Amino acid sequence: MSVWSDYPIFLAIAESGSLTAAGAKLGISQPTAGRRLRALEESLGGALVRKSGGALVPTEFGADVLKHVNRMNDEAAAISRRSVTHEDNLSGPVRISASQGLGDFWLPIAMREFSLKYPDILIDINVDFRAVNLAQREADIALRWLSPGTQNSVIGRKVVSFGFGFYAAKEYIARRGMPKSFADLSSHDGCRVMTDGEEIMWKYSTFDGDTSPMRPVIQSDSIGAHITAIASGYGIGVLAHGAISEVPGLVPVLPDYSHSADLWVVAHEDLRKSKRMRACFDYLVEALRRDEAHFATGSPSVFPEHGYSHVNSLHAVPSAAE
Predict the structure, then answer these.
(1) Looking at the chain, which residues constitute the CATH 3.40.190.290 domain(s)?
(2) Three-state DSSP class for residue 217
(3) What is the reported pTM?
(4) Span 4-85: which CATH code?
């Protein structure tokens, strides 16, 4: 007889393509994941996965089982969401998902007022570029760029628009000159943020073309590292205007090419009856709107200890031109 707890392990392996990644996701070791998979296969009487191109993929039998496992997983998540709707109190955890920059610099500062008002609510911040699955309770509330996403049964509110532009260090401009047109960017060095093969800042800001015209000289998967690289004089990069308000030594490049991207606050509709989820959702909408000018143009944040100010030591790289 199969063990119920083995099915999520099979699901994680099918989604990630490896025992190691599945184990990391579930907090178990790679050998344990492999052992549990083999036990499930023995109980069901057939192989569930096979190797293909260096990854583990479902067999034909495994694909059939996976359909049922996904339904089981959806039902379990629905029970979890349903249990939250019966909670009529302002205590317990609220997990908020947000991208880098917004999630690690702005959100902890902005949520301080909420925490003081509701001290029994645990604020759990998940910082990730990935669009989390709200139906599976990977997060309760998500801050999403460009749209509320394609997941069913979500409620979303478009709250603010973020302004984006080109920035460089004064030292870089003194050394390489200021571009006079968009076409001039092709002769300059560039800094970029990459994740899953996409140039994130370029994608958010919707500038002309699919990719940046600058020659990339440094890239990372971190907004903090991206800001530091630009401030260090590596080259020109795209930043949200709000990201540079506390970073000295940066100058705008081609300011007429400022673009914007909408930010949405999203939650699963099953959670709207939870008092603590509703309180957090409404507060986030209100806090983002209070700081609308900061996000749009880079004016000072309404939150007095804005997150970028206390990480200046990471970004304040001395400039040779100063």
Answers:
(1) 91-322
(2) strand
(3) 0.68
(4) 1.10.10.10
